[in-house]
Amino acid sequence: MAKTLLLFLFLSIALISFGQKKYSINGTIKDGTTGEQLIGATIRIKELPQSGTVTNSYGFYSIYAPEGDYILLFTYTGYEPVEQKISLHQNQEVNIPLQVKSDLKEVVIRANAPNNDNIASPQLGVEKLNMAQINQVPVLLGERDILKTLSLLPGVKSSGEGNTGFYVRGGGADQNLILLDEATVYNASHFFGFFSTFNSDAIKDVSLYKGGMPAEYGGRLSSVLDIKMNEGNNQNYTVQGGLGLISSRIKVEGPLVKDKGSFMVSARRTYIDFFLKASSDSTIRGSSIYFYDLNTKANYHFDDKNAIYLSGYFGKDVLSLKNTFGTNWGNSTGTIRFNHLFNSRLFSNTSLVYSNYNYVIESFLNNEGFKATSKITDVNLKEDLSYTLGDNHTVKFGVNLLHHTIAPGDITAPESSSFNNIHVEERYGYETAAYISDEWKASNHLTLLYGLRLSTIFLLGSGTFDTYDADGNVTSSKTYTSGQLVKSYTHLEPRFSASYVLDDANSLKFSYNRNTQNIHLLTNSTSNTPTDLYVMSTNNIKPEIADQLSTGWFKNFLDNNYELSAEVYYKWLQNQIDYKDGAQLLVNQGVESQLVYGAGRSYGLELFLKKKYGRFNGWIGYTLSRTERKFPDINNDQYYPATQDRTHDISVVGIYQYNKRWTFSANFVYGTGNAVTYPTGKYNVGGLTTYSYSERNGYRMPSNNRLDIGATLEGKQHKKYHSSWTFGIYNVYAHRNPYTITFRDSKTVPNTTEAVETSIFATMIPSVTWNFKF
Where are the beta strands (DSSP E) in 118-172? Predict the structure, then answer.
């Protein structure tokens, strides 16, 4: 049935594409200085106002027009627009290099170069982050951070003060698919979430999809964060980096073969451990606390139709207290991609992707020594194709085969330890998917993006698989051999988005999409931690399902310098997972017996005002939302606020270029406190106070707010060398935002209980970084 639907969709698109004889114009848009391919550059035909397209992830575009003479207009934010005259009497290839604007005051693109893709595009809930803006936003300790900048956007909420974890439209932290050059990053945080794994020096493009997700993406319910790394400069060798208070970074790039291939290597490391080694305190000396990450990428273009890309990421965190305990965790990814242009209509990208996340926890105490390990490994083979049927249709279709290996955990201990060796069986499975979608410009006013995704999960042996009842008791147990099918689930995921253009500056949009998720995070923490446990859908754990409806109004004004949008959404969640009170998740063969299953819902309003160009730019975002969960064994089977439920979220970001050397920036955030469960009573047992609790998440943490400021001083221009200084103050007015609130017996007033509030950043935190490039 599913295959028939996919075939019917493809044939329907093909039938309506016949019409007047037209010719194609295709090519690649690059940065004229570095040779980097530009993602999302706009191509228009001046004589055909409703025509237009954007480059894909590899800078490739294809557009159609009837025979005739035209002027092509190529634009990209921050670059000089280019006009190109052509006489179209046959298919043509037009490759264009764009040059970066030298003066920010001239960035404004005037009316004769319309830049209203956000009006015409059928996509809702998509945020494109500009790396230049990311580098100006003030952040903790001067570490420029993509994930912290994301949390300043409407519909995206930080999981805690100073934390890189995030929630999107009410979804859990594990319901965000984070891709780095197509490889899944399972734990995108360093230092327990205070910094992200993404070194901004190595990043080229950032796109966040929070609604209306295209059919080529799948596997998560709430969002896709698609991050592309820089490809390297294929014209000249450059070295750049920075020295900060807690870390240093460096990037080297240059041509492998000029105009045909390039490489990029970027590294970052903290050096807190160097200070620990010099400590006079013998209990500290010899301890380690640091993280590092390494990004690498290389590419080679054999000709205009064939290119290969290789990229990798390697990151690790180490925290070790001398003679006490140690933990380390890290991600590693690798991607090999081959691009092939069959003809002016058909573009292909074939990818082989590897991803690994693992952690190790060790105790060094003589009688309590042990070592606990866990990992998840993916190997993914993908084929993605884009076919331009004409000036009104762009079809994307593809397949992928993803193999999972999950090792939930092992404990090994010496004979002298009180711990016993424990081995939890590894789990294996395949996720397969096929998709097709079409972007159809049905008229000058209406654009549709519709498609289907077919996803299947196969859980395989070997191993013993138990089936549990609602109370967590084993009802049956069966052993499977290697490769034997244990359980499978198949789902069709329809995707539909539409944009109706009211006029050049206004449009209305609507979307519906269904997503399923087969990799689940089990945690009793509010943010990502190294010991988070991932499990696949099994005979007990069903795939999570989300259906989301959203609609919005989008407006550009004042010569397209400003964007205003208002979106509302409603999301239904099925097969949600939570843990029982007191659940043991780490190194537990029967962890599925500790889980409960239920439903969820989230809905809200997102307002966004953005100034895009000029010496002063930035945005204001506001979110009004509600996020709830319902489980049979919790809160009498009634909906209750999820931990990440926050009624109000406000963010204000401003960046001002005072002159050619000084740029100032600031951001302010306010948010309702998270939903929490507080004790409602207590009793004494054997001299110990025990607390009793009522409804789940029936209380609120205090609201939080913070102001950060920053400034960048550009050094004097030299022919082969450039430097800058970045200054920042995090939490300017030293507000004590609560991180945790715990309860204890009062030390001063007998028979009373006191609440103890802990704030991680109770003072202002200054930072300074020296950046260089030559």
Answer: 126-129, 156-158, 166-168
